[in-house]
Amino acid sequence: QSTVPLPGTTRVFTISNQKGGVGKTTTTVNIAAALAKSGARVLVIDLDPQGNASTALGVDHHAEIPSVYDVLIDEFPLAEVIQKSPEFDTLFCAPSTIHLAGAEIELVSQVAREHRLRTALEQFIADAEDPFHYVFIDCPPSLGLLTINAFVAAKEVLIPIQAEYYALEGLSQLLNSIQLIQKHLNPPLRLSTILLTMFDGRTNLAHQVADDVRAHFPVEVLNTVIPRAVRISEAPSFGQTVITHDPSGVGSISYLEAAAEIAARHAKSAKTHSNTATLTE
Ligand code: ADP
Ligand code: MG
């Protein structure tokens, strides 16, 4: 039983922002855990050599573990590297290992170097006995080949924006990159979701930044904002997401609400689209 509407086909998100420390990994693992807790089957692909998402999901990722590196470079099936997270029965992770740091260079000389993750993911989705509802790809803070692989494999982009000064700076570069990917590699890709993170409601600046971002992206920004909260930042040191670390705290509640919004908005637009289709037939 799910407490959120489940999509009919797998929704594949890349969580991107070429700035480091804006909450990409935190958002990836907590939205994923929130959706898994709500009854969805969810896969997180850790594409950051740092492996922070793997750590937060309590998944082994020492150097000898089969990882996304083997998928990208040696064409291992994704199914062979995926581990179940101890967090929830429907939450899975394709871990990153330190080897992934070299993949950025090794990919340069590979055939179909931008499409490697997409090919592996399509195969995995087609073969999965129990279908996955969501895939979230956590990207490193750069626009190299790993991030490009994520953009090509995804259908939707989720941008976490830190509600602080300079929030919008660098965003136009990210939007340009998305446009280039749409044009040359993955036309259906769309920026579907923006989430304001590390929001400190006591400062005027945070409200100003939030208003600014909403003015630029009235449709994409979720109503829910993620507050700055110690429980959110300490959860990974317990090998947990905040959803299990502090289930009734503000961090957990805000990520559950953001996840519910992501699910509900899609269900609503899917309905609108199918209505439109019937009307014009
Ligand atoms: P990125 O993946 O973009 O580099 P992270 O998700 O690792 O960013 O977050 C950067 C730092 O900020 C981490 O130490 C993380 O624990 C902390 N952090 C993220 N979101 C919050 C939040 N809402 N409240 C407090 N700390 C946060
Ligand atoms: Mg990160």
Automatic annotation (TrEMBL):
* Cross-referenced SUPFAM superfamilies: P-loop containing nucleoside triphosphate hydrolases
- Which InterPro entries does this chain map to? AAA_dom (IPR025669), DNA_Partitioning_ATPase (IPR050678), P-loop_NTPase (IPR027417)
Q: Which CDD domains match?
A: ParAB_family (cd02042)
Q: Where is the AAA domain?
A: 11-190
One family from Pfam that matches here is AAA_31
Specify the superkingdom: Bacteria
PANTHER family, per database record? P-LOOP CONTAINING NUCLEOSIDE TRIPHOSPHATE HYDROLASE, PARA FAMILY PROTEIN CT_582
Return the similarity comment.
Belongs to the ParA family.
Function per UniProt: May play a role in septum formation.
Name under which the protein is recorded: Chromosome partitioning protein
